[in-house]
């Protein structure tokens, strides 16, 4: 694919305005510093965040904008002080590529909660440059924000772990949702929800999928291995599930009621919210009567992310993906908006830029 300038060292696709339409673009990545890792990107997952920022839905997009924060690739160069990575290693990069490395959160390996963390794309790095993401041929990242992908784990499957996987894994571990025999509800069956089902089964939980669409029953049970399926708009089905779940992972970002889901929890049950609905409205009795908890979460720290990737490799947990070439990305983003993907698009970057 032709680059726009002969002196640029990185090929990419970028959005140039709020239409969100992506087209070929080229730019320069920084040279590798003493603590950096450079990787040839082989695959990049497609997250709804890519839609939000390419279309300026948060009103802070800086164009040209190169999206992508579910990155997998192969190390091609390391800085002089890098000890944990070597040429040829398979590596993932997730939603952030820097943080202050000095605050309480960073010192606790909760870099995702650092007030100065830097998004992988459309963020402002410490040198003042605007970050550009994984819809590109290579990336240079400080070693702290790179994750080893174990030998044999497919790179196209590893990419979505860096956002979709860690987003649901973190609250599940934090709230001890890894106790065999306990019961888990999963609201929503998209890129995040299908990973919550997979983790739930790997943890030995009894998993119920809660969906507004009856059409997802077969895939939830027969494809993903859920134990039960409930249509959340069916009052009788919801009534039958009252006070029966230990945990719920809520992946829905559209506005939805919370009280009906809280009623499904046992005493001291927990709902972990990982989506971003427009508002949360809860009757106090839904929490107080039963000592229930509504908790929030966003991606994960570097330690949790590496542990999650290792857990997936050991337990053979693989996201369900549809691999595409980058010249299909505009159609893929439109399909993502229309929820027409099972369950994650992954761009074959390596083949796309040959």
TrEMBL record:
MF terms from GO for this chain are: cinnamyl-alcohol dehydrogenase activity; oxidoreductase activity, acting on the CH-OH group of donors, NAD or NADP as acceptor; zinc ion binding
The UniProt entry, under Pfam families, shows: ADH_N, ADH_zinc_N
The cross-references to InterPro entries, in alphabetical order and at most eight, read:
ADH-like_C, ADH-like_N, ADH_Zn_CS, CAD-like, ER, GroES-like_sf, NAD(P)-bd_dom_sf
Which keywords fit this entry according to its UniProt record?
A: Lignin biosynthesis, Metal-binding, NADP, Oxidoreductase, Zinc
Which terms does the UniProt entry file under GO BP? lignin biosynthetic process
Concerning CDD domains, the annotation shows: CAD1 (cd05283)
Q: What is its EC number?
A: 1.1.1.195
Q: Required cofactors, per record? A: Zn(2+)
* Residue span(s) of domain Enoyl reductase (ER): 20-347
User: Which reaction is recorded as catalysed by this protein?
Assistant: (E)-coniferol + NADP(+) = (E)-coniferaldehyde + NADPH + H(+); (E)-4-coumaroyl alcohol + NADP(+) = (E)-4-coumaraldehyde + NADPH + H(+); (E)-sinapyl alcohol + NADP(+) = (E)-sinapaldehyde + NADPH + H(+); (E)-cinnamyl alcohol + NADP(+) = (E)-cinnamaldehyde + NADPH + H(+)
* SMART domains xrefs: PKS_ER
Annotated pathway: Aromatic compound metabolism; phenylpropanoid biosynthesis
How does this chain assemble? Homodimer.
Stated family:
Belongs to the zinc-containing alcohol dehydrogenase family.
Kindly give the PANTHER family that the UniProt entry links to this protein. ALDEHYDE REDUCTASE (PTHR42683)
Protein name per the record: cinnamyl-alcohol dehydrogenase
